[in-house]
Design brief:
- By secondary structure, this protein is an alpha/beta fold.
- It has 2 domains: 189 residues, P-loop containing nucleotide triphosphate hydrolases (Rossmann fold), CATH 3.40.50.300; 128 residues, abc- transporter (atp binding component) like domain (Coagulation Factor XIII, Chain A, domain 1), CATH 2.70.50.
- Helix content is 25%, strand content 32%.
- The strands form 4 sheets. Strands 5-6-7-3-8-9 form a 6-stranded mixed beta sheet, sandwiched between helices. Strands 10, 12, 14, 15, 17 and 18 form a 6-stranded mixed beta sheet that branches.
- Helix 6 links the parallel strand 6 and strand 7.
- The chain is globular, with a radius of gyration of 26 Å.
Length: 431
């Protein structure tokens, strides 16, 4: 098996026995020779190859076999037939709280789960503060997990996985449990792992996330792989499948899955550029320090949610550490996939900022009309000179959730208006 292959699945099937009554299972044990069960095929002849460093989305309706396939890849479930080859250490977030003992405290589960993932106790101790900071569950870290909310459980579970340095990451829809701020942090960490060359299998019902995050996608239905290809095309077929009365009309397309995925992975449509890679932290020479950034309404009341059609503000408070006369304050709006949706600064807007002496403070406000569709977005804030020297830059500091009572697709709600003209029909009749 080539070293470039991270995961290879050949002719994998998974069958379960279903009994109409519990007593039928007992009868089959006591009276062998006669099967009293119906066989259910959760997976049927799955063939798939995923190369190292690829990000692959797996989509399909509930019951299509996605979770079963991921459990087999992760090694928590054995296939009935077929072969599975995994080249690298896997970290998997499959089910809410999987791998956690509810009677143990969060701290104890961090060490227990970390060792299951292959980390030594010394490594876990060194990473513990970082894990706890990522989870942000406060004093609950020393309380039994059975007292946690579902959101707290997934926070802690992903915090352990995010710091386990896997070569293969599997995420199965569990992140949908977290709040907007946590989802933003998780997606940012997933993008960082993607840039570091981690192989990622991503299962989500959010088709936009699959299209933006993944380089290829796998469509599953009724335990079979129907298609492997470019995310945009596969998602479109998935949507068509949802409205289809006859899912079997879609032909299985597994002729050369590894080549298809590898070819798509070579495209640069969704690759984050070098500048964005370097902007995933705080940097600058600190001649100016950003003290505070707030998301507010027009009455300066701090908010976390913005409604489409309203106007909100980004207030940036800063302190000069030296005499400066060329300040430029800028903002950058991104979606959860890291795509820059909008960016501007005071220089582009021809807003002259005053000269500042060391110790002087300044607040700059950006009033922005919200044309965004519902979703979660982040703001990056930076201060630099007119020549581009970075004073202070904080990546994805503000998390904003947009709510929209109307329905539309995409990132932007353009508030289109429908106009209908009905003209009188003119009929002529000749004898």
């Amino acid at each position: 098996m080539g070293q470039d292959i991270a995961i290879s699945i050949k002719n994998v099937s998974k069958h379960y026995k279903r009994y109409a009554r519990p007593v039928d299972r007992l009868k089959e044990i006591l009276l062998p020779g006669k099967s009293r069960a119906q066989e259910f095929c959760a997976l049927q002849d799955i063939n798939l190859e995923i190369y190292r460093g690829e990000t692959v989305g797996i989509i399909g309706q509930n019951g299509s076999g996605k979770s079963t396939l991921l459990q087999i890849i992760a090694g928590t479930l054995m296939p009935t037939t077929g072969e599975v080859y995994v080249n690298g250490r896997i970290s998997a977030l499959l089910e809410l709280g999987s791998g956690f003992n509810p009677e143990f405290t969060g701290r104890q589960n961090v060490f227990f789960n970390g060792q299951i993932l292959g980390l030594s106790r010394e490594v876990i101790e060194a990473k513990f503060d970082e894990i706890a900071a990522f989870a942000e569950i406060g004093d609950f870290i020393d309380q039994p997990v059975k007292t946690y909310s579902s959101g707290m459980v997934v926070r802690l579970a992903f915090a352990v996985i995010a710091n386990s340095e896997p070569s293969i990451l599997i995420v199965d829809e569990a992140l949908a449990v977290g709040d907007a701020k946590f989802q933003a942090r998780c997606m940012k960490r997933i993008r960082e792992m993607k840039q570091q060359g981690v192989t990622i299998l991503f299962v989500s019902h959010d088709s936009s996330s699959v299209k933006m995050l993944c380089k290829s996608a796998v469509l599953m239905n009724q335990g079979k792989i129907l298609e492997i290809g470019e995310p945009k095309e596969v998602v479109n077929h998935y949507i068509a499948l949802l409205s289809s009365d006859n899912p079997e009309q879609y032909q299985v397309n597994q002729s050369q899955p590894s080549e298809e995925i590898r070819e798509i992975e070579n495209h640069d449509d969704f690759v984050i550029d070098n500048h964005q890679q370097k902007a995933l932290h705080r940097h600058g020479n600190q001649l100016v320090k950003i003290d505070n950034v707030k998301l507010t309404d027009l009455d300066n009341k701090e908010i976390t949610k913005v409604e489409t059609g309203s106007i909100f503000q980004i207030l940036v408070s800063l302190t000069a550490k030296a005499e400066l006369s060329d300040l430029v304050v800028g903002i950058s709006l991104r979606n959860l996939m890291g795509m820059v949706i909008y960016g501007t600064n005071t220089y582009l807007m021809e807003a002259d900022l005053p000269c500042l002496q060391a110790g002087e403070q300044l607040t700059v406000g950006f009033q922005i009309p919200c044309h965004l569709n519902k979703g979660v977005y982040t703001f990056t804030v930076g201060v630099h000179s007119e020549e581009g020297i970075s004073y202070d830059w904080i990546d994805e500091l503000i998390v904003m959730e947009v709510i929209n009572n109307s329905f539309c697709e995409g990132i932007v709600d353009l508030k289109s208006v429908v106009r209908i003209d009905k003209k009188d029909a003119v009929y002529s009749h000749k004898k």
